[in-house]
Amino acid sequence: MTSAPAIVRVGLLGCGNVGGPLVSLVDERREAIVDGAGVRLDITRVAVRSLTRDRGLDLDDGVLTLDAESVATDPDIDVVVELIGGIEPARELILAALGAGKPVVTGNKELIANHGAELAEAAARAGVDLLFEAAVAGGIPIVRPLRESLAGEDITRVMGIVNGTTNFILTRMTEEGTGYADALAEAQSLGYAERDPTADVEGYDAGAKAAIIASLAFGTRVVAGDVYHEGISGISAHDIASASRLDHVIKLLAVCERLPGADGPEVAVRVHPAMVPAQHPLAGVRDSFNAVFVEGASVGDLMFYGRGAGGGPTASAVLGDLVDAAVNRTKGTAAAVGFGGRARIRPIDEQRSPFYLSLDVEDRPGVLRSIAEVFETHDVSIRSLEQEGIGADARIVLITHVAREADLRATVRDLRGLPTVHEVGSVIRVVASEE
Ligand code: HSE
Predict the structure, then answer these.
(1) Catalytic: 109?
(2) Class of domain 349-430
(3) Ligand 1 pocket check for 197: Cβ under 6 Å
(4) What is 151-305's CATH superfamily?
(5) What are the pLDDT digits (tens) for 285-341?
């Protein structure tokens, strides 16, 4: 005889782009979840900002409410799902729910990237789940693999394409020769980019995701403010063409590394455009897709690929967490979160990578020597160098060996002071296998 499934009453905070698809998905998948996990999910209360907006959802009368606080602490609610976004009131509401002993599922990247440790401590005190798979790379399972499947792995580096908008723009620039402004306008018309695209194109969104990935991968606390970030708005058609000639593609990468430091392990986290070798798995991640590439000492290389945004994929990630939290609730258990202690965050000046540089130069004897001297002065070694164009169009394109950021910056400063260098164009980091 099979026992009746446990009914788990869900309080949903926010019913917008992800909350709406989640309600529909719970309806669609309810019986399959009963069969597979032994819990019956009931969306019991939904806190919204407008009671009159038509959401096209099949919700019973009295489910919608304007009072989010009462949902977070309602004794009749077993699990709270926060999909409001932003820091406040989401933070207060989650703390209230955890304080009332309720597991919480959230997709709130900004909140976890800034207050993840505080919330994890509150969840641990209450002995309940705090799950946030949807906060990084939408529908791609990466939080749980880092937290659970790879808990014993020595992860050395994680590189992610974790912003779909910028990946779409760079793909258009690479494959269609579209200019940056036109590619951005297309991303906006397709609903990928906001009217103010700053958070995506300047790397803030990817930076918050990088902070969460680094925290989980290295069992430490990294917050969004620790992440150095550069965006893609300075990438030119010439850079895209040069990358292609060098058998590379330009991607906006979140790079998280664990490195030996003088006083123990250090963590380096940064977001910037990078030249990725054409044969690297990340180079084939096109359009608005996301991917996270994990390098581990024992497991080797792994790649997680899929849709990093959108209502359906993100709701799928939330639902996976919700089923987990519901099952754990019925068993009286909870997963460990583990933001760990605070490691030294290696300042950007001390981080290292190879660099690509493009210089508009005079085309006459001795120019190369004066340029090479500047590199030598700052201990930056040149790996390859090529002159494109002649006369007034002369341009030197070069790639360095692995160099310190501070040394490279000093090199660029001195190159700008050379009378033979008209302009230092782009400076782009290169993903190298030798790192
Ligand atoms: N705007 C993000 C992207 C999705 O383009 O990937 C939300 O984090």
Answers:
(1) no
(2) alpha beta
(3) no
(4) Dihydrodipicolinate Reductase; domain 2 (3.30.360.10)
(5) 999 999 999 999 999 999 999 999 999 999 999 999 999 999 999 999 998 776 778
